[in-house]
Amino acid sequence: MPRIAVNVDGIRYEEEVEPRLLLVHLLRDRLGKTGTPIGCDTTNCGACTVLMDGKSVKSCSVLAVQADGCDIVTIEGLGTDGRWHPMQQAFHEEHALQCGYCTPGMIMAAIDLLRENPDPSEDEIRAGLEGNLCRCTGYCNIVRAVRRGAQAMSGQEVKAS
Ligand code: FES
Ligand code: FES
């Protein structure tokens, strides 16, 4: 079996993996990263989104062997020193979740969106998160949370929404 080395949330792992093993199963079943959920078997929900070398990917559509040598960040690796990442804080403050199943993927996708566009409009946020489905919230608070997260991450004063 192929042997891969991958950094996940700042820790290096070396694993023997079957060539067909999906990254999401490596994360959840082998490394215990159950904060990354699986929401579908058709690669369309986005719940499993993680950052791979800084770019968001649906980890159910990536083979573990493709992550060899990569840096992976999951929702569990975002906070620092016991504090939430500003985007996690923004989702909390804007009540941008109900069941929370989509939330890890939404937050990871939002962070990648801001990497390319630090000050997105509402329409740009909706377009940027089109690969992430939420069955509970109706998206309005999610969009507000991403706006708030963008303000916090850019050091702007966070405006009440
Ligand atoms: S579980 Fe990966 S897109 Fe749905
Ligand atoms: S909060 Fe339930 S799916 Fe989004």
Automatic annotation (TrEMBL):
InterPro entries: 2Fe-2S-bd (IPR002888), 2Fe-2S-bd_dom_sf (IPR036884), 2Fe-2S_ferredoxin-like_sf (IPR036010), 2Fe-2S_ferredoxin-type (IPR001041), Beta-grasp_dom_sf (IPR012675), Diverse_Oxidoreductases (IPR051452). Residues 2-78 form the 2Fe-2S ferredoxin-type domain. One of its GO terms (molecular function) is metal ion binding. PROSITE patterns: 2FE2S_FER_2. Pathway: Alkaloid degradation; nicotine degradation. It holds the Pfam family Fer2_2. Keywords: 2Fe-2S, Iron, Iron-sulfur, Metal-binding, Oxidoreductase. SUPFAM superfamilies: 2Fe-2S ferredoxin-like (SSF54292), CO dehydrogenase ISP C-domain like (SSF47741). This is Carbon-monoxide dehydrogenase small subunit. It comes from Thermostaphylospora chromogena. The lineage of its organism: Bacteria, Bacillati, Actinomycetota, Actinomycetes, Streptosporangiales.
